[in-house]
Write a structure and sequence with these properties.
single chain; DNA polymerase, domain 1; 2 domains; 0% strand; elongated
Length: 130
């Protein structure tokens, strides 16, 4: 019986420690979201669009060929890209499975983003494309 009580007490301590850890992780996540909101506000970005969506594809790990095809299709930012569907991309001249796989890999590395996303009010009217 003593072993059972000891085991139960250890379990309670571990449970309390895990609750404390989860609480700490949640607090960190809240702080990150708040920091992102402040950065977006400072940069004048709409709160509905995370800053990542404004990143230029030219600054990402894509081949020159893929970038050239995307630019000729009017796709300049990550936000532009994720709104395109696979079918739309494959219809672009010179765009094939190699380019599609390259893009899918990039999106996965950036946080499991996918093609075909629906973004409201995209692109923002003041977004400059070069």
């Amino acid at each position: 019986m003593s072993d059972e009580i000891t085991a139960f007490n250890e379990w309670q301590q571990r449970y309390a420690a895990s609750q404390h850890l989860l609480s700490g992780l949640l607090e960190i996540q809240i702080q990150i979201k708040e920091q992102e909101r402040r950065v977006n506000e400072f940069l004048g970005l709409p709160p509905s669009h995370p800053a990542m969506l404004f990143e230029k594809l030219a600054d990402m790990a894509l081949t020159d060929n893929t970038l050239a095809i995307l630019h000729s299709a009017g796709v300049f930012t990550l936000g532009d890209l994720i709104q395109r569907t696979v079918t739309q991309l494959l219809r672009e001249p010179m765009f094939g499975r190699k380019q599609l796989n390259e893009i899918k890999q990039l999106l996965a590395e950036l946080g499991n983003l996918e093609l075909g996303a629906k973004l409201e009010n995209w692109p923002p009217p003041d977004l400059l494309k070069d």
